[in-house]
UniProtKB/TrEMBL annotation:
Keywords: Chromatin regulator, Metal-binding, Methyltransferase, Nucleus, Phosphoprotein, Repeat, S-adenosyl-L-methionine, Transcription, Transcription regulation, Transferase, Zinc, Zinc-finger. PROSITE patterns: FYRC (PS51543), FYRN (PS51542), POST_SET (PS50868), SET (PS50280). InterPro entries: FYrich_C (IPR003889), FYrich_N (IPR003888), Post-SET_dom (IPR003616), SET_dom (IPR001214), SET_dom_sf (IPR046341). Its EC number is 2.1.1.364. It is an enzyme of class 2 (transferase). It catalyses: L-lysyl(4)-[histone H3] + S-adenosyl-L-methionine = N(6)-methyl-L-lysyl(4)-[histone H3] + S-adenosyl-L-homocysteine + H(+). It is found in: Nucleus. Its main location: nucleus. SUPFAM superfamilies: SET domain. One of its GO terms (cellular component) is MLL3/4 complex. This is [histone H3]-lysine(4) N-methyltransferase. Residues 329-345 form the Post-SET domain.
């Protein structure tokens, strides 16, 4: 990893980004630049493919983001000078920025990749992954190679059931809604619709995506979250049971993980392709959140709500409450809770 990062960015092999920038051939036109990072002789190779209508694609390579972008910026600056357009100063433009590596959403994901703890010169913007601070795994026999092969991926069944009562969110001016099950915060009782709208506006500052100690990627609290707070909505495409069954078979044939959540007896939310980050919340036998089917403005929605106070950096999880299956269809649970049932179903 020593050569695959700088103080400002990490350079993951396989990264690709599409950028629209000024043309190298015409001062008043723009064209498309496909940026990518590959590995060559143990070092990163930065490439830019110039795609402009009426011209053949041009491939530029360099050993650094700045080096390869300078091959674009210098001709662009010359064309702008020739046409009298506002002057461009390439020396002040950073290659990491032009590659898109410093975009907050990209940085959050890159900082959660395996091996980033070896980036000694990089300054983390969102803090090191919580997994990095965990103790090393203990091998009872003293040798990792002699241990049984760990199960690294568990495909989620196509239906996650919330197991909670359907609630109704009261809109401004509407009649009071019956609240059953887990209580909401005082603010939510006073104005149910306002807390939902607030959650929709602020959920990006509530959570972040990172590697999970439970399974694959997980969702973590980006700040302290109080009990009975709407954290995030489980979103996706609402489909009927028949469509869900067909799509499940299609996803399995494509070797995809399946992310679906049942709303009621007839409808399912499919988050496999068009879902949000809530689909990455892992199961736990000692959850800090609950999943609830809520009715808001005549639409059924699935809300993830905290059932206790959650500290910043803590992984979000809830009980999937799968139906019990026979031994041949059991799914092992890796939540690590004291009261872990060992099986998710």
């Amino acid at each position: 990893m020593e050569d695959f990062h700088s103080s400002a960015a990490i350079f993951p092999v396989g990264y690709e980004a599409s950028r629209i920038y000024w043309s190298m051939r015409h001062g008043n036109r723009r064209c498309r630049y496909l940026c990518s990072i590959d590995e060559k002789d143990g070092e990163p190779e930065f490439s830019i493919r110039v795609i402009e209508q009426g011209y053949e694609d041009l491939l530029l390579t360099g050993s650094s983001p700045k080096g390869v972008w300078d091959k674009v910026l210098e001709p662009v600056a010359d064309r702008r000078n020739e046409t009298g357009i506002l002057k461009l100063f390439p020396v002040y433009l950073k290659g990491e920025d032009l590659f898109g590596l410093t975009v907050p959403a990209v940085t959050r994901i890159v900082e959660s990749l395996p091996g980033v703890e070896a980036c000694s010169r990089y300054t983390f913007r969102y803090g090191r992954n919580p997994l990095m601070e965990l103790p090393l795994a203990i091998n009872p026999s003293g040798c990792a190679r002699s241990e049984p092969k760990a199960l690294t991926h568990v495909k989620r069944p196509h239906t996650l059931t919330s197991g909670s009562t359907i609630k109704t969110l009261q809109t401004n001016g509407g009649s009071p809604a019956e609240l059953t099950g887990v209580p909401y915060s005082k603010q939510f009782v006073h104005s149910k619709s306002s807390q939902y709208r607030r959650m929709k506006a602020e959920w990006k500052s509530n959570v972040y995506l990172a590697r999970s100690r439970i399974q694959g990627l997980g969702l973590y609290a980006a700040r302290d979250i109080e009990k009975d707070t709407l954290v995030i909505e489980y979103i996706g495409t609402i489909i009927r049971n028949e469509v869900a069954n067909r799509k499940e078979k299609m996803y399995e044939s494509q070797n995809r993980g399946v992310y679906m959540f049942r709303i009621d007896s007839e409808h399912v939310i499919d988050a496999t392709i068009t879902g949000g980050p809530a689909r990455y919340i892992n199961h736990s036998c000692a959850p800090n959140c609950i999943a609830e089917v809520v009715t808001f403005e005549k639409d059924h929605k699935i809300m993830i709500t905290s059932n206790r106070r959650i500290q910043r950096g803590e992984e979000l999880c809830y009980d999937y409450k799968f139906d019990l299956e026979d031994d041949q269809h059991k799914i092992p649970c890796h939540c690590g809770a004291v009261n872990c049932r060992k099986w998710m179903n």
